[in-house]
Design a protein that fits this description.
8 helices, 149 residues, mainly alpha
Length: 149
C-alpha cells in the first residue's frame, strides 16, 4: 500500500511536468513520444501521462499535437507551402493523421483552412492573430453548461 504524495513531491512532479511541457513547446517538430518524454524526467510513461493530464487538462500527446496544429495553422496562413509540406514541417509523419487531427481541432480540413485563412485575418495585428487563431478542441472540450449546448 502506498502513501499519498507529499507536498514536496507534488511540487517536484509539477516542476518536472513543466520541463516536459517546455520540451514539447521547443521540440514539437522533432519525433517525440510519451516514453521518450518520460525517460527525460525519470518517470514511467503511465505516471507522466496521468500527472500531465491532471496538471494541464490533456495528455502529453494531445498537447504535442495541439502545438503542431497551432504551428501548422501559422504556416498554412502564409500560403506558400502545400498541406503535405506543412504536415512534415511540423513533425507529423502521416498526412492522414495530421489531416484528421487538424480537422478535429480546427473544425475544417487543412486544405480549406489554407484556402480561406489568409483573407480571414487580413489586417489583424500579429499580437491579436495568435490569440484569435489558437486551435480549440471542438470534440474534446467539456461543455461548461449543458443547457447552452
Amino acid at each position: 500500500m502506498t502513501s499519498a504524495p507529499t507536498h514536496t513531491q507534488k511540487l517536484t512532479d509539477l516542476a518536472l511536468l513543466r520541463r516536459v511541457r517546455d520540451r514539447i513547446d521547443r521540440e514539437h517538430a522533432q519525433p517525440l513520444n510519451v516514453e521518450e518524454l518520460a525517460r527525460g524526467v525519470n518517470m514511467s510513461a503511465g505516471h507522466l501521462s496521468r500527472e500531465f493530464k491532471r496538471a494541464y487538462g490533456e495528455s502529453p500527446y494531445s498537447y504535442l499535437m495541439t502545438r503542431r496544429i497551432e504551428r501548422a495553422m501559422a504556416l498554412l496562413r502564409r500560403g506558400d507551402m502545400s498541406v503535405t509540406d506543412v504536415c512534415f514541417e511540423v513533425g507529423c509523419s502521416s498526412l492522414g493523421t495530421f489531416s484528421t487531427r487538424f480537422t478535429e481541432l480546427v473544425g475544417v480540413p487543412p486544405s480549406v483552412y489554407r484556402r480561406d485563412a489568409a483573407t480571414a485575418i487580413a489586417g489583424v495585428p500579429s499580437c491579436v492573430e495568435k490569440a484569435v487563431t489558437r486551435p480549440i478542441r471542438n470534440r474534446e472540450a467539456p461543455i461548461a453548461d449543458p443547457q447552452l449546448a
